[in-house]
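Quick note —
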Amino acid sequence: MSESKPIEDDQDKAHEENHTPPVSIDNIGQKTVTNALWAYLSFFLGKGLTFVTTLVLARLLDVDEFGLMGFALVGIQYLDIFSRFGLDTALISRRDRVEEAANTIFIMSLITGTLLFGVAYVSAPFLADFFDADITSLFRLLSVVLLITSFSIVHAALLQRELRFRSKLIPDMGKSIVKGGTSIILASSGAGVWSLVWGQIAGELFILVALWILIPWRPSLRFNLAVSKDVTRFGLNMIVVGIIGALRSNVDYIFVGRILGAAALGLYTIAYRLPELIIRSLNLVVGTVAHPVLSLIQTDSEQVQSFYISYLRYISLLTLPIGVGLAVVSEPLVLTFYTDKWEATIIPLQYIALGLAISSTGFVPGVLYKALNRPDILSRISFLKLPILLTVLWYSTRFGINGVAFAQMLLAVFYLTVDMIVVNRVFSISMIATFEALAPAVISVTIMGGAVLILSRLINLSNVLELLVLIPFGAILYVTTLYFVHRKTLLETLDMVKSLTLNRRKRYA
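Predicted structure written out below.
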């Protein structure tokens, strides 16, 4: 291996000298928004390509084949939590001895990735028995991604830590193109569900190569025991959070697949795909950007509080209208893009879109706890939510995939309530301030959603024309309503976008 390149930045050096430079909330806000825009553009374009690929594959593959892949992906996601061990999060949050931490984490990731590949290979028959599906060979091949990603965990964390989200366009889009192209070619050749697996592997290989090109850091394989203990303590909490988080994210898939079967899981997976692409992607992107940014201001409680309120205001302005919009146009949307073959996904899509929109406003507390090196709070909250989650979703399966999706929406309301109460106590952020931050979006989206729903019942057009009418109408009505409900919020948003645009023009002038 070549000699590793130092990666301590000015912030680290200043921190080591006990002269941490002050970070203004204006700079933090602009840095967050700028990087969030780049990150979302990268993520959205990548996921947009994935969505286009899904539309093509939905015509080439059977519903059962999507369900079989869903079984295998559930197992891989849980093993992936252990392979990461919270190591990437620990590296992003770390403010000192970053070079030593990177080398130590690289070695730890290779060891855990190799061990978990072995676990996956051995456990594949048990997973197949659990789901009563022939996925042993499928799961074993898919588990190769655990080995591949173990080589890129540090590089991905460094790219995020350095806030180089503009650079993520290359690996994100390239991965989606390679993954989708491989899957479509193989599916067209009759490879069936195997086309999805080989596409996944090809995409992971591309992003591995791209990250090693983008990030010049190279491991020296110097293991530091003291640093390993630090990141392990951090990682143990993150594993607990990750397992519970993955259970929360995937227990619906587990219950649907185990109780309702592969065909139901295939339908449920497709119903989840579009809301996940647009709404959950935005949450993940903002969380990805917010984590390193919040790490810079973790000692300033006023800035943390200001950031949280601003986040609630702006994230609700984006995700609530998207969720309600997807719900009210779900029927023409599904019939246009997926065809009648997937008509059973319409109602689940409505509930899932609303549920993800609601839960988006409760996403940032988890990022706050990690950035402030308090993942223990997150793990305790997760333990509180888990038994309720399991009980509600298990019971909801008796009503089919529609019942499971409806339960997800109810659980989102419950999660949001719990998160708001905890944030109020931990960060002393009043409930009134929280409601005031959410009010502009809630009022505007209620009016918009009701009007679009009424219009959809009055017009009698083809599915394509209905979308062309309802989407612009809803968007214009939402912005207009927001102007009258809370003009200040709308003008602040426009000013922020204008400021970012002017700054970018000056930079390239």
